[in-house]
């Protein structure tokens, strides 16, 4: 199947062709016709499957078609709301809207915390068709009465599983209560837990189900390896891998924000250009680090699970788990950052004695044993004493992780105040 066979408007097909694409991914083949037909959608899809274009393309078509054609003017109130769990994902989705809607006079805006709210208010007052938002900052705008959600025709809940992991369920329900009862709903999630299904049952009406990623399966194009070593040798082993294998553009996962900072500093001091990205970093710092990483100015980007959720790099060759995650599902999300867009990737996990239980849980989840590799000089000690793995400090009940940066946060110097598109404002 080709994009030209999906019935999208010529302006959208031209934008897709401008990006060098002619064949839709499996999720795009299934999701686009369902959305164009006006159905609610429940899609199981991991990052890297093309899911963002799977909903932005048909949404752009619907906005620019039919009796409510807005090609001649900009809507003062948003017609589409896309809710995302992180700032990075909000930026990524809005960029997709801008990329594929560049031949249409449709405006989009991303609003998120960690930056000043006043520029966002100014842009909302000018009018916007597609609003992409994180829950906390959207509710800030609702409280200040700077956004009107009464005309929303299409509501997209992206990465619903991560939303619940971050404690956003109450905010999601508040947002849904503000929307018109008659609307089209699209829900995307990498996994569908009982909690997600409960949310879906109250949100979706006779949805079309699309499943292009079997639940909790690791990317097929990713080579997975485990290097067992002692806890105290991990930093030296990591440096050894960079130096002996000539690794480049490596996404390194640490369990905590403090650990990510310390590891990035250690790598940088050893001559390996590195930066850390996590929820305590300003939006400007996170954006610069991600941009430098994509441009090849950084060899390594050290990230926590939540911060890495919005990282979208098609040709990322390596993921290294410096520490295994506490939740085995997060391992699948982590290694899914590589092996995308048909490219092969490699995921290496450094596992100490304390983490063998975590590794066993991961292998049980993905239903396969991961290859063990021995690196001479870094073999684990047979007498290593186990020490309980300390999980990251969790927010108090009802308070989502990273929220202080998301709501009522002062503007950070150097950070982008907003992301906006639309030919009328260029």
Folded structure, characterized:
By secondary structure, this protein is of the alpha/beta class. The protein folds into two domains: 3-215 and 408-425, P-loop containing nucleotide triphosphate hydrolases (Rossmann fold), CATH 3.40.50; 222-373, Rossmann fold. It contains 16 helices and 15 strands. Strand 10 (274-277), helix 12 (283-294) and strand 11 (300-303) form a beta-alpha-beta unit. The longest helix has 14 residues, at 87-100. The two termini are 34 Å apart.
Defining key terms:
426 residues, alpha/beta, Rossmann fold, eight-stranded mixed sheet, 16 helices, disordered C terminus
Classify the secondary structure makeup into a structural class.
alpha/beta
**CATH class category label of the largest domain:** Alpha Beta
Helix segment count?
16
Any idea what the CATH superfamily of the largest domain is called? P-loop containing nucleotide triphosphate hydrolases
> What value does the Rg take, in angstroms?
22 Å
Query: Which oligomeric state applies?
Result: single chain
Biggest pleated-sheet summary = 8 strands, mixed
- Under CATH, the topology of the largest domain is which? Rossmann fold
End-to-end distance, in Å?
34 Å
Number of E-type strands: 15
Concise structural overview:
The chain is an alpha/beta fold. Helices cover 36% and strands 15% of the residues. Helix 12 links the parallel strand 10 and strand 11.
């Amino acid at each position: 199947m080709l994009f030209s066979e999906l019935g999208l408007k010529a302006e959208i097909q031209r934008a897709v062709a401008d990006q060098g694409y002619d064949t839709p991914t499996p999720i795009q083949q299934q999701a686009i016709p369902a959305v164009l037909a006006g159905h609610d959608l429940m899609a199981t899809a991991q990052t890297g499957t093309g899911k963002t274009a799977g909903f932005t393309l048909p949404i752009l078509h619907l906005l620019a078609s039919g009796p409510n054609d807005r090609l001649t003017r900009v809507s003062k109130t948003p017609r589409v709301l896309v809710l995302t769990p992180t700032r990075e994902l909000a930026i990524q989705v809005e960029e997709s809207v801008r990329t594929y809607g560049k031949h249409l006079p449709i405006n989009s805006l991303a609003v998120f915390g960690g930056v000043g709210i006043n520029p966002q208010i100014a842009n909302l007052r000018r009018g916007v068709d597609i609003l992409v938002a994180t829950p906390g900052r959207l509710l800030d705008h609702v409280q200040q009465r700077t956004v009107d959600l009464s005309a929303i025709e299409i509501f997209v809940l992206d990465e619903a599983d991560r939303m619940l992991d971050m404690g956003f369920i109450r905010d999601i329900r508040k947002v849904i209560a503000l929307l018109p009862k008659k609307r089209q709903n699209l829900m995307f999630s990498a996994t569908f837990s009982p909690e997600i299904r409960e949310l879906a049952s109250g949100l979706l009406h006779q949805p079309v189900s699309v499943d292009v990623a079997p639940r909790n399966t690791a990317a097929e194009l990713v080579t997975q390896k485990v290097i067992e070593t002692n806890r105290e040798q991990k930093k030296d082993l990591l440096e050894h891998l960079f130096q002996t294998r000539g690794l480049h553009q490596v996404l390194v996962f640490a369990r905590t924000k403090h650990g990510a900072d310390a590891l990035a500093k250690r790598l940088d001091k050893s001559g390996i250009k590195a930066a850390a990205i996590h929820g305590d970093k300003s939006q400007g710092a996170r954006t610069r680090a991600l941009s430098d990483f994509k441009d090849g100015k950084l060899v390594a980007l050290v990230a926590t699970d939540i911060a890495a959720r919005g990282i979208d790099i098609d040709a990322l060759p390596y993921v290294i788990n410096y520490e295994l995650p506490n939740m085995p599902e997060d391992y699948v999300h982590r290694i899914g950052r590589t092996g995308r867009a048909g490219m092969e990737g490699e995921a290496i996990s450094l596992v100490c004695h304390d983490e063998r239980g975590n590794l066993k849980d991961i292998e049980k989840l993905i239903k396969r044993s991961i290859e063990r590799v021995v690196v001479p000089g870094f073999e684990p000690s047979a007498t290593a004493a186990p020490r309980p793995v300390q999980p990251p400090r969790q927010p108090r009940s009802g308070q989502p992780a990273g929220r202080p940066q998301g709501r009522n946060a002062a503007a950070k110097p150097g950070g982008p105040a907003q992301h906006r598109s639309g030919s009328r404002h260029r």
